[in-house]
């Protein structure tokens, strides 16, 4: 009987909707990102970070922060403004799956 509240919490947590990420869809969505962050997530511009190989959760949190106005950047804020949570998960899945590389000097 003591475990009923714990079991209820677990069941509620399991029933919450979960957004699945799709790296293949992320690759398609990332086409616009390539202008600054490179075709494979490795930037050729010194002021723009590499996204390839970054941790997925970091990418999700960062992009959401740009979208939601918690982080501000003249280019990234408007780029992220129209992204849904599913778009962000897909992009993060794609970039985090790419091998990390050093930018060309």
Key terms:
105 residues; mainly alpha
What would you say this structure looks like, in words?
This protein is an all-alpha fold and 105 residues long. The chain has one domain: Cytochrome Bc1 Complex, Chain D, domain 2. The chain contains six helices and no strands. The chain has helices at residues 4-15, 23-29, 34-37, 56-67, 76-81, 85-97. α4 (56-67) runs antiparallel to α6. 21% of the residues are buried.
Offer a quick outline of the entry.
This protein is mostly helical and 105 residues long. It has one domain (22-97): Cytochrome Bc1 Complex, Chain D, domain 2.
What are the secondary-structure elements, in order, as H or E?
HHHHHH
Secondary structure category:
mainly alpha
Tell me, what's the shape? globular
Q: Give the helix proportion (percent range).
A: 40-55%
Query: Helical stretch count?
Result: 6
CATH architecture: Orthogonal Bundle
Oligomer: single chain
Spatial gap, N to C terminus: 64 Å
CATH C-level class is: Mainly Alpha
Ordered list of secondary-structure elements with their pairings:
Blueprint: H1 4-15, H2 23-29, H3 34-37, H4 56-67, H5 76-81, H6 85-97
Helix pairs in contact: 2-6, 4-6
């Amino acid at each position: 009987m003591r475990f009923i509240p714990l079991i209820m919490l677990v069941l509620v947590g399991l029933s919450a909707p979960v957004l699945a990420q799709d790296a293949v869809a992320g690759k398609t969505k990332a086409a616009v990102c390539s202008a600054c962050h490179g075709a494979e997530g490795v930037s050729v511009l010194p002021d723009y970070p590499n996204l390839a190989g970054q941790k997925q959760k970091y990418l999700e949190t960062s992009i959401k922060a740009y979208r939601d106005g918690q982080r501000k950047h003249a280019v990234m804020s408007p780029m992220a403004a129209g992204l849904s949570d599913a778009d962000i998960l897909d992009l993060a899945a794609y970039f985090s799956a790419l091998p990390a590389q050093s930018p060309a000097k």
